[in-house]
């Protein structure tokens, strides 16, 4: 009988990523049945103890050469096999690149409903209900999946990470991914790692972003100076990206990334609807803009009217002083 | 080549969305509708592929009669014809049902490749390209920033995988390719293009005719049910710090630490 929540654990260098702890914590808090973890990846992965400390009672492993790299085809098949073995009521994943590849596909194989990019989850009997933004966050909908297995992806940083309890234990279960030939019709040829491998904006807890006023790609060094003491990631408005000052990867907004940090500092960003759509759920927003009438001051928790070229270096200096 | 494009008509991104007081939906009175921006990249890539390889570009859309306007806009860019699966009577169909019926329409026409936008900017689910591929038993790749044909049955694409890193993926055709912003620069429809588009054909099909019973579509049959609509949480304006930067900057950092407690 389908019961409990199965969390897809994303990992890097043999360790679970923060989103895994976030979801295991939430699943434990929801208390609708056993909390289980799905680990897909290279042979030899052992994260059982750590996943147990965040609430998993069972950890399913589908590992090996065919699934060593996150790839849509093989990982979808492996997740399907784990879902079959785990028999959960709910399958939960952070809304990441690989989750977007595989969650819809796996949900379809189980004729199950899937709600994407949820920001809230609630218990409803032994099932969950969710809330998710639509129209780039201009409206919120409550959703239910009354029949069958429920598939949810969640926006990173939506839930708190609980204190781990290292006395907890979990059972490790090996599952055969059952990869078929047709699962390899698409194959990753090459991974081009960025020189500054950083946390993806969608998962960043702190972001420093600039608008078109930054004036050049080189001037982003001013943003990096502010970001460094904060351990923050760099973002940009669409205008800055379209002007060629920043890669599309840094774009926050409706046609860029939706971010959910605890701190978002916006330099020279006016606050157009489409940009706000991408950062409105930030816990704290700081805006620095020369124009006192910039719409961004309507939603910023703290605002400073000033020139970013004066403010940014001073802020970098002050942050270095205070944070070290 | 038979090149398909999935296309959706959606409210323009500038639209001020107003949730109805009873939470049953949004006010649709004043909305300006457009081609989903991500689908435009799909249309453009399809047209480029047609220029290179010959063939035809067919637009597939699930929607009401009004959606013909969006299909026409793609025809004006240069697509050859459209197939609209009528949503009349099956409004409120969820991603699963819409993908099912779009896949049926694509299968009936026999496409070699299908482009789609990575997500629709109204629902923001980012599921339909993957679901359509699954129902066609095809692979799906996306969100794609670079696209090329390696040979007649193989494509090579590039996509971002987070943190600034990218992946180069090779994929066998037929496949669904989900487009990301930056894949190309969608062309503007020329006036001759707009005139020609008026005479291009849009076939309208019903789900039943495509083998998907209407009873398995619509709000009642939806696997995912929307129970309530709400406006987003209100963000009240905070404080604008007054004074010289030499004062306000340290003040800000102090507030972030002591008041907001985020550093």
Features:
heterodimer; A: alpha/beta; Rossmann fold; 2 domains; five-stranded parallel β-sheet; 8 helices; 18 strands; 28% strand; B: 263 residues; alpha/beta; nine-stranded mixed β-sheet; 7 helices; globular
Description:
The complex is a heterodimer of chains A (324) and B (263). Chain A is α/β, with parallel strands linked by helices and 324 residues long. Chain A is 27% helix and 28% strand. Chain A is built from eight helices and 18 strands. The longest helix of chain A is centred in the C-terminal third of the chain and has 16 residues, at 308-323. Chain A is elongated and about 60 Å long. In chain A, 59% of the residues are buried. Helices cover 29% and strands 29% of the residues of chain B. At the A-B interface, helix 4, strand 7, strand 9, strand 10 and strand 13 of A face helix 3, helix 4, strand 7, strand 8 and strand 9 of B. Strand 18 (302-305) of chain A pairs parallel with strand 13 of chain B, so a sheet runs across the interface.
Order of helices and strands of chain B: EEEHEHEHEHEEEEHEHEEH
Q: Treating each run of at least 4 consecutive H or I residues as one helix, how many helices of chain A?
A: 8
For the largest beta-sheet of chain A, the strand count, sense and barrel status come to: 7 strands, parallel
User: Please, what is the oligomeric state?
Assistant: heterodimer
CATH architecture of chain B: 3-Layer(aba) Sandwich
Global morphology of chain A? elongated
Average pLDDT value of chain B? 96
Structural class of chain B: alpha/beta
Number of strands of chain A: 18
Q: Considering DSSP H and I runs of 4 or more, what fraction of the residues of chain A is helical?
A: 25-40%
| Overall number of domains of chain A | 2
Q: Provide mean pLDDT of chain A, rounded.
A: 96
Give the SSE order of chain A as H and E letters: EEEHEHEHEHEEEEEEEEHEHEHEEH
Overall 3D geometry of chain B?
Answer: globular
Structural class by helix and strand composition of chain A: alpha/beta
Low-confidence parts of chain B, pLDDT < 50 over ≥5 residues? none
CATH superfamily grouping of the largest domain in chain A: HUPs
Termini gap of chain B: 56 Å
